[in-house]
Amino acid sequence: MKPLVACLLCLLPAVAVAEPLRLQGYAEGEYVRVGSPSAGILAHVAVKDGDRVAAGAPLFALDAVIERAARDQVRADLERAEAQLADLGKGKRPDELKAIAERKAEAQAALRLSEATLKRQDVLARADYASRARLDEARAAVERDRAQVRRLEAEYRTALLGARPDEIAAQEAVVGQKRLELLKADKRLADLAPAAPAGAVVEKVYYRPGEFVAAGQPVVSLLPPGNVKLVFFVPEPRLGALRVGDAVAYGCDRCPPGEAEVSFIAAQAEYTPPVIYSVESRDKLVFRVEARGRAAALALNPGQPVDVVVPGK
């Protein structure tokens, strides 16, 4: 049985292992172009071509006089709205409460006088010394003075309270709106002086102080180290063995060899890729492949020729 199995195994075709594929490629950079969403005069540039900047470092600033004044106006409006809201939660001032209390004391004194007058008129009317009309007038005066005392007592209680809940809710809405307006004003002001989104090399400064910059127009172009990638082109027969995440080796003139990881494989074929002009490959289909540094960013300059070795499988 064993000789038969061995014989059958001998009949199976040997699995061929492809040789490593040596290709020519180049480094390419994905630039971050920083501008402002607002137009304005360029007031200051903090960097120059070739500088290395850290994340958060200032890059440039547009003239901000108008935006700063607008922000200060919104801040003042917010402070006024907050003060009004705080005032609605309080009662009347002490002097106002004192004035109400004094009017209430006067009304109580008038009530005591009208009650005493009513008693005298009642006695006189019983003895037929006063008319019924005078008695009715005294009774009306008492009712009037009692109503005045009740009104002032209610006014004093109300003065101790704050505003009505609906008034407070409306003012709270105004305060919230002013806070949002202040956030927008702060954002517009910050947009006039953007900072570096990441550590990078300044590739190009496009404007100089005093020049007018249109809204959205880049002022500085940055190249973060992680935005450098390898670009090479794989022949169609070897494409099936290559997957995103595979490792490739690379090297260049007078630089240490390194390893990159395949991050992109084109879905459509091309003919001879840029910067490769060999007659042998001119009529062959190739696919664009991109790779990025594995352990660290690629220490390459955009446009730099690179030799790439794709391991055989």
TrEMBL record:
Annotated signal sequence is: 1-18
Establish whether keyword Signal is in the entry: yes
Keyword Isomerase (UniProt): no
Q: Which UniProt keywords apply?
A: Coiled coil, Signal
Q: Which GO terms describe its cellular component?
A: cell envelope
Q: Where in the cell is it found?
A: Cell envelope
Q: Which domain of life is it from?
A: Bacteria
Q: Which PANTHER family is this protein grouped with?
A: BLL5650 PROTEIN, EFFLUX SYSTEM COMPONENT YKNX-RELATED
Q: What is this protein called?
A: Membrane-fusion protein
Species name for this entry?
Answer: Paramagnetospirillum caucaseum
